[in-house]
Structure formats: C-alpha cells, structure tokens
Design goal:
CATH topology of the largest domain: Butyryl-CoA Dehydrogenase, subunit A, domain 3
Distance between the termini: 37 Å
Number of domains: 3
Structural class: alpha+beta
Largest sheet: 4 strands, mixed
Number of strands: 10
CATH architecture of the largest domain: Up-down Bundle
Number of helices: 14
Bound molecules: flavin-adenine dinucleotide
Strand order of the largest sheet: 1-4-5-8
Mean pLDDT: 97
Low-confidence stretches: none
Order of helices and strands: HHHHHHEEEHEEEEEHEEHHHHHH
Strand content: 15-25%
C-alpha cells in the first residue's frame, strides 16, 4: 500500500472530520432534496477540495492524483449517496485537464469560480447517438474568425442543473474535421449559461444530490481561448481526463463498499439469531472475508493507478502503462462494491431494504460507476489492447 506523506495524512484527517460531521448526517436528506446544500459546497471549497488539482495561481490547491484520491476516499466513507463524491471527482479530474491544457485566459476565468464553489465544472462527451463510441457523436465545432460555433447535443451528463443554474460549464468534445474521425475532434469548455443551450433532465437511480441531464447546443458561440490544447487533437487529450476520473472512481467504489461492509458487520455482530450473533455463521463471515479482501485489493490498485498518473506528470511514466493500470482498477470497481454492499444489505434483513438504510443509497450510487466515465466493457478493451496490441482490438 502506498505510504502517505504527512501532508496527505493531515488532509485525510480534516476531510474525514468534515465528511463525518457535515455530510454523513444529512446524506439521505440531500438525496431527497435532490441537491447538495450550499453550506456543504462552501465547506468543501474552504477546505480547498473543489477543482483541487488546479494550480494555486488560479485559486486551486495544486494537489496531485494520490492526494486527490485520499479526499475521494474520505468523501465516499461519509456520503452514502455518492453525490458529493461525484461533485468532487468530476471537478478534480476535469480540473486537472483544464489546468494542463487550458489557456491562461480560460483558467483565470473558470478556476476562481469553481474552486470557490460558485460554478460547476463538468464533463460532457456522451450523446444519445454516441457514448462508448465517442467518435460516433454528431456535435460539431466550426471556426468563425476569433470565435467557434458549436451545434449538437449531449446526454446523460452529471451536473447540468448545477452549471446551467448557478454558472459554470462542461468540458466537451466535438468534430472539427469530421472526415478525419478521431483525428479531427477538438476539446473545449462550453459554458452552460451560454445563449443557445437548452437543458433537459433525467431521473437517475442514485447519487440524486447531483443532477443528471442533457442539453441541446444550437449555434453556440464560444471564444477561441476556450479550446483545450491543439485543435483536432481532442480525442487524445480527453483520455487523460477520463483516466484521472476512473482512478478516483476505483478508490471511491472501494471506500463505499468497505463502509457498507463495516455497517453490515456491526449489525451481524449485534443481531442474535438462533441464540447467537449472526456474524458467527460461516455463510456470513466467509463472505465478509472475501468482500473485504477484494475491496482492499481494489483500493490498493486504485492508488497505484493514481500514482501512475502522478509519475507520468513528473515525466517518469508511460502513457500506455497508465491507461492499462487505470482500466484494471476501474474494470471491477463497481461490480465488487455492488456485490459487497448487496450482501451487507442482506445481512441487515428488512432494514437493509428500507430507505432508512444508508447502504441502499450506496448500492445505487456505486452501480452508476460500471457506466459513468467509461463502462466495464471499455476497461476490458483497454487492457486487452495493451496486452494483445492495437491490430487485435475488438472495436476497430
Ligand atoms: C449516472 C451517470 C452519469 C453520467 N455522467 C456523465 C457525464 O457527466 N458526462 C458524460 O459525458 N457522460 C456521462 N455518463 C454517460 C456514460 O459515460 C455513458 O453511459 C457510457 O460512456 C456508455 O455510453 P452509452 O450509455 O451510450 O452506452 P453504449 O455506448 O450504447 O453502450 C451500451 C453497452 O454496450 C457496451 N459496449 C459498447 N461497445 C462494446 C463492445 N465493443 N464490446 C462489448 N460491449 C460493448 C457498453 O459497455 C454498454 O454496456 C453518465 C452515465 C451515468 C449512468
């Protein structure tokens, strides 16, 4: 297991205290109200958690990926609904991308608002016609003097209401040179308050404290300083953001699963059946041992994936190795966490099936991660590609 630095240990402790004191007691209520209260968002901002990967020069905390993982882990333990985890992880991962590839002008405009919790910074690549297959999307971007004009739509996007109502926007991808396929796509920041954006909303199964929705993009004009990196290189750039998010998700799934196992274990130690604690039965304690082992392995792999990202930023890593270890970490993250939480619910009997049980919310939240930021199947494709070579990949 990675040895945390003194600074990381301090951050871990303060985020843990914040999550247990400010988030855990209101987590289920937050889902009912379908929003994260402002004082929680402001508290996260005061601790420097929002878009924490941005440079201090723009209001960020300049944290590396492992430290971002430490925060994600503590939020996942405190928020059974996963809502603040999503609010946090999306901004940490895509803030990293904006910090690395964004222009000075864009960073000076966006980060001070995002790090203060006033704006939301999201990611919008999925379209109704293209999710896994990003190139299958139809959204297009055209140069118009010093501006760009964008047309199309995005769907199943986290944080649409937050950005469209309070301010902020999403990092987006579109075809600039359609005949070049993946080699003709450009990544840019799209403010959701811009004229020509019309949001729609979806009722999700879980993590309901943060919205999910889509938006149509009708002749939206953006300045050229919103482009990230080189034009037509977006397909390659965007994968660094996905990978950051995926590694954080692995840690979040492990932490959420371990927290539910702890709840289930405490119940099984207290609850007496046939004259003895439920935990004494091998059916329970063998499953506990198996889930615990898998989730601890997952957590360690998640941190290794985050470390690979850090090494790459320090010029010591390898792009393909990073992609592989990140995909390995995310591949079973949701499945293993869901299986563990499902058993923890079972051990808690009828209470486990009630809305009062925090673990049912955790199950609904971690279930989303077999889809969001890249599906389980895509993770398998990436690992297989790195093992077999590009000529044998299944999606060509
Ligand atoms: C709660 C939630 C929040 C989300 N938030 C965001 C967000 O903020 N921003 C954003 O851009 N997107 C977001 N998404 C969308 C998510 O990234 C997509 O759902 C995902 O990429 C899959 O795309 P799709 O839904 O179009 O499924 P499809 O691409 O249509 O795939 C359908 C199924 O087929 C599988 N599949 C596809 N190709 C293959 C293959 N070659 N071999 C085997 N199986 C294959 C997929 O894994 C999937 O299981 C979110 C999704 C959810 C559920």
């Amino acid at each position: 297991m990675i040895e945390f630095t003194e600074e990381q240990k301090l951050i871990k402790q303060s985020v843990s205290e914040f999550a247990q004191r400010k988030i855990a007691p209101i987590a289920l209520e937050m889902e009912k109200n379908k929003e994260i209260p402002q004082d929680v968002i402001k508290g996260m901002a005061e601790l420097g958690l929002l878009a924490c990967t941005a440079d201090p020069a723009y209001g960020g905390s300049g944290l590396n990926a492992v430290t971002a993982g430490v925060i994600a882990e503590e939020l996942a333990k405190g928020d059974c609904t996963g809502s603040t985890c999503v609010f946090y992880l999306v901004q940490a991962a895509w803030g990293f991308l904006l910090n690395k590839y964004g222009t000075e002008e864009a960073k000076k405009e966006i980060f001070p608002k995002a790090t203060a919790g006033d704006w939301f910074l999201g990611i919008a690549t999925t379209e109704s016609g293209g999710g896994t297959d990003v190139v299958g999307g139809k959204t297009n971007i055209k140069k118009d003097g010093d501006f760009f004009i964008v047309n199309g739509e995005k769907m199943y996007i986290s944080g649409v209401r937050e950005a469209a109502t309070n301010g902020g926007g999403h990092i987006t991808i579109a075809h600039q040179t359609p005949e070049l396929g993946s080699r003709g796509m450009t990544v840019f920041y799209l403010p959701l308050t811009a004229e020509g954006i019309t949001p729609t909303y979806i009722e999700d199964l879980g993590r309901e404290g943060i919205s999910c929705g889509g938006f149509s993009i009708d002749n939206v004009k953006i300045p050229k300083h919103y482009i990230l990196g080189e034009e037509n290189k977006g397909f390659y750039i965007i994968h660094e953001g996905y990978e950051y998010a995926r590694a954080l998700i692995a840690v979040i799934c492990a932490a959420a699963g371990l927290k539910s196992l702890e709840n289930g274990m405490n119940y099984a130690k207290e609850r007496k059946v046939f004259g003895q604690p439920l935990a004494k039965f091998q059916e329970i304690n063998f499953r506990l041992a198996e889930h615990y082992t898998k989730l601890e392995m997952l957590k360690r792999l998640g941190y290794e994936a985050l470390r690979a990202i850090d090494l790459e930023q320090e010029g010591k890593g390898n792009r393909f190795e990073t992609s592989k270890i990140v995909a390995m970490a995310k591949m079973f993250a949701s499945d293993w966490a869901c299986e563990a939480i499902n058993d923890a619910l079972q051990w808690q009997g009828a209470f486990g099936y009630s809305r009062e049980c925090p673990d049912q919310a955790a199950w609904r939240a971690v279930r989303s991660f077999s889809l969001a930021e890249g599906t389980r199947e895509v993770m398998k494709m990436i690992v297989a590609r790195e093992l077999l070579g590009k000529e044998l990949i299944s999606y060509k």
